[in-house]
Amino acid sequence: MAILELTNVSYSYAGAEPVFTGLDWSFDQNKLYGITGRSGAGKTTLLSLLAGLTNPTVGAVRFDGKDLSAINRYRYRSRDVGVIFQSFNLLPHLTAVENVELSMRASGKKIDHKRDKALALLNRVGLNAELAARRVLKLSGGEQQRVAIARALSYDPSIIVADEPTGNLDLNTQTDIVDMLAELADEGKCVIIVTHSPDVVESVDRVYELQAAPVRARKSRRGAKSTDDSGPITA
Amino acid sequence: MLVLVNAFKAITRSVGRNLLIMLIVAVIAAASAVALSIRHAAWEAETSGAANLSVTGTIGVDRQKLMESVPATGSADGSDDTSTDRTQAMDSWREAMQQYPDLTVDQLRTYADSSYVQEFLYSSAISVNTTGDVEAVSTESTADESDQDSTSGQDQSSDPSQGGAPPDASGGFAGGPTMFGGRSMGDLTITGYGSQSAMTDFVDGTKQITDGAMVDTAEADNTCVVSDEFATYNSLAVGDTITVSNPAEETQTYTLTIVGLYHADASSQTSSAGGPIFSTAQDSANQIIASYPTVAAIEEQSAAVATDTTDSRGQTVSTALTGSTSGSYVFANPDAYHSFETELVSKGLDSTYVLSSADLDSYEASLVPLQNLSSFASTLLWIVLGVGAAVLVTIAVFSIRERKYEVGVLTAIGVSKPKVALQFVVEMFLVALVGLVVGLGIGAAVSPPIAETLLSAQVAQQEAQTSTVDQNFGRMVPGAGPMAGPGSQSSGFGQAVEYINQINATLDWTVMGQLAGIGLGLAVVASIVGVVFVLRYEPLTILSNRS
Predict the structure, then answer these.
(1) Which domains, ranges and CATH numbers included, belong to chain A?
(2) Closest Cα to residue B62, out of B26, B103, B92?
(3) Which of A86, A90, A94 sits opposite B547 (nearest CB)?
(4) pLDDT tens-digit series, residues B92-121
(5) Interface contact A57, partner B, CB < 8 A
(6) Burial classification of residue A182, based on how many CB atoms lie within 10 Å of its CB (0-12 exposed, 13-18 middle, 19 or more buried)
(7) What is the DSSP code (8-state) at residue A80?
């Protein structure tokens, strides 16, 4: 069973035309997904739906078979989904490691030795102890992106949603980040990347392309890694 | 844990803002501590004073009301010739006074049957003349001895043929039966008491038995107790008898046996009421103490042989000895007094009669500066709280708007809105707590001196105000009377008011509890703003706007 499902999902802002309509997508664990689309197609809005930050106007987003609008979305956000925002959304008055620890505490999960685990996570994303102890405003964009990734991973969610995780990063760092996300998918997580980058699209298992309407899907080029090679996905 | 950790980090992060909030709370707390401690101390002083105050009340004619019922003097056309109107008014006034005489002891006793009355004290005083070699004590006459070679008291009493005359230089009333208050005025006053409790001078210790014993207040045995001054003046001792006569009818005599001598702390030439002396009968040395039944028996015997005459004004005057009766009720506290006042109405006491209490009036007057201070403290408290709350709410509004992004991030990563709101509340409470403790310390230190200073100012203001009123009415200037002293002030006709001029405005547990409540209330008010904002914020909106 898909861990995350969109069923006939439409979304429109108050008094405006729908941003997208009729999305019937599903996301499995152990896969890396890419969501693409032109600017204004509603990629970030869709990410907000997947992250449980808002509810669809029509249809349902289901996590593990349960409609997100019917469950405690705070719990979902703090334990089941890790979101890497495009603008990072880190707390500037905290250090990198404190931002990661904050998410651990917010999850309510019993996590021992939070500081050590946070440092280990930051180290995994390429930030040493010295950088980890800095306030995030004193880190570069790439470093803040890494902190955001570490924070998303800190409470071991089953879904990772990343909004343009490679934007404004140099090529090497982009590659590192995407490899890391692919690694997470290989570890069993469902990783969804909202991106414009063709390089990222090349790396994912499956791509959903978002258009105002209708929506169409095409097969991933990461077929070798995909466990679902049933052909092009249509919406 | 999350809430506490986040709150602590937020507090240490915004040191300046939180110091400002602490300072504001400390100022509010200090000012509130001063105001509350003053209010509390004033309340304690008032309630403990009232609890310990044994009130005595008397029923008398409400002359003010009676006067209002009498037609006003003066001609309607404004002419100068108003003598007829005045005569009519005087007659009406006298008629009204006769219609409402003082209540008798028996009438007063019926009202005394009340659960509010602790004790009923009564007495009757008659004025009599000395006879034979016995003379009333009069130091004034001694001073003029070189001129007159005898005491005026003796002269007055021994020569009843002399008519009534105004007070002369020798003191007292020269001549025979002087009319005072509708009664013949003699040289001595015999007061018959219904009980020993009614002898307030002995109860409070200003008079003491120095020889013999006190009269039996239940017996009409013609015994009496005289002052040691009077006894020495006339070479009298316990066991001797004195014979007194009716000032209006000198042949009518009564003999009393002296069973005791008393000493009065107040010197001779001092009236028993503490005011100026118009007659030797008012001199405390000439006060003879007897039982009420003895005095009542004398009055009865006198009435039996009395004759009526008509004076120049056409008024009927009796030669009977009539006593000036006095009945007072003792109450445990002012509440009982006021309840009794209500009960009197329900028992059908004519509205022309009124219950009054000089000691309660005096007590209430003594509280005026304290009540003014308490009122000032209450006003100060409300102003400080109002302004303080407004400032705190403003800071809270700016603070929460400043931290909108933080709210967005926290809710986006799954911290529930109630938890975020709770974090803001905890922050405000922790900061307010520190401010409260600091303010409490300052308040505790400054409350007593500030309260003392303010109370002194209130007392001085009250004294100045009363002094001005007294001077306007040509009354005695304060400080001249025997009752005058620090914090005392004449109020009305010679009655001194001992203003409460000490206050214990230290912070006790009650005040600290009230302050804690105020601190809590302010923190809640300021926090509610934060809570409302947090609950209104949507993370997606905040983060989208930021992006």
Answers:
(1) 4-219 (3.40.50.300)
(2) B103
(3) A86
(4) 777 777 777 778 888 888 898 899 998 899
(5) no
(6) buried
(7) I
pTM to 2 decimals? 0.62
The residue type at A24: D
Q: Which residue has the tokens 């349902």?
A: A60
Q: Are B21 and B397 contacting, i.e. CB atoms less than 8 angstroms apart?
A: no
Query: Cβ separation of A105 and B2 shorter than 8 Å?
Result: yes
Nearest 5°: phi and psi at B399? -65, -45
Domain extents in chain B: 2-52+367-546, 63-100, 120-323
Longest dimension (CA), chain A: 49
Residue window 171-230, chain A: list those with CB within 8 Å of chain B: none
A53 contacts B539? CB cut-off 8 A: yes
Q: How do residues B125-141 score in pLDDT, each as one tens digit?
A: 999 999 988 888 876 54
Tokens of B382: 């409300």
Contact predicate A90/A146, CB 8 Å? no
Rg of chain A's alpha carbons, rounded to an integer?
17
Q: Is B15 on the interface with A (CB under 8 A)?
A: no
> Are the beta carbons of A30 and A186 closer than 8 angstroms?
yes
Which 105-164 residues of chain A touch chain B by CB within 8 A? 105-107, 151
Residues from chain B contacting residue A106 (CB–CB below 8 Å): 2, 410, 413-415
Q: What kind and span of H or E run contains B13?
A: helix B2-13
Which residue do the tokens 């009540």 mark? B371
Contact B409 A91 (CB under 8 A): yes
